[in-house]
Amino acid sequence: MLVRIVKMRGVDLTVFDFDYDLTWAAFFMNANGFTYSRYGSREEGSPEKGLSLKGLKYTMQKSLAAYASQPTAKLKRPVKSANNFPSKPELFPAGKRLKKDACIHCHQVHNFQTDLLWSTRRWSKKRMWFYPPTRTLGFQLSLDQGDKIKSVTPKSAAAKLGLKAGDVFTSVNGVTTSSEADVRYGLHRAPESGNIPLTWTRNGQAIAGKIS
């Protein structure tokens, strides 16, 4: 079943947790609300720069395979973040200031989050990094196969770990990966400092490590 959500009012943000600055995002879920994968990424430049039909098809196929093996998987509510954000957009202070039933767009959710951090004096540079680009760790992913490394920057954290072009991620910080959006989601939920556990395959061989 295909469902299109065009307004964020009333949407459970603990379920539909993604980069709200995106122009478009997709969730592949079962009837229990369990998410097998996400799709949709963006950096500077065109809003569609991080999207491709081949990449979307790849993620859909992997999600269908995951569903076939776990059709009745249950939604696990995430541990409450340190930010302690409300579960719905209209419950934020900035959301309450809107007219009743006013449309709330995706990008406004991020604005609401920022507004709350400022107003409660919890703002810091570390809290700015929503869904960080993978280049912060020194690797770029393939546009048409979002869990596959396209290139690794020499002397970067990724290079020091031993990641190489052609490696395919299977999980990042405990998040199963089938797209760049999944990889970024794992990075987004990582602690502000310390090590992030990663698993990947190289020529069919499973490898695990931690990146600083």
Index terms:
212 residues, alpha+beta, four-stranded antiparallel sheet, two-stranded antiparallel ribbon, 5 helices, 23% helix, globular
Structure description:
The strands form 3 sheets. A 4-stranded antiparallel β-sheet has the order 6-5-7-8. A two-stranded antiparallel sheet has the order 1-2. Strands 3-4 form a two-stranded antiparallel ribbon. It has 5 helices and 8 strands; from the N terminus they run E-E-H-H-H-E-E-H-E-E-H-E-E. The chain is α+β, with helices and mostly antiparallel strands and 212 residues long. The protein is 23% helix and 17% strand. It has helices spanning 53-69, 93-96, 106-119, 157-161, 180-188; strands at 26-29, 35-39, 139-141, 149-152, 168-172, 175-176, 196-202, 205-211. Strand 5 (168-172) and strand 6 (175-176) form a beta hairpin. The radius of gyration is 18 Å and the shape is globular.
Distance between the termini: 40 Å
Averaged pLDDT, please? 91
User: In what order do the strands lie side by side in the largest sheet?
Assistant: 6-5-7-8
Q: In terms of per-residue confidence, which ranges show pLDDT below 50 for 5 or more consecutive residues?
A: none
How many helices in DSSP terms? 5
Alpha-beta content class: alpha+beta
Q: How much helicity do the residues have?
A: 10-25%
Coarse shape: globular
What can be said about the biggest beta sheet? 4 strands, antiparallel
> What would you report as the Rg, rounded to the nearest angstrom?
18 Å
Strand count: 8
H and E order? EEHHHEEHEEHEE
Strand content: 15-25%
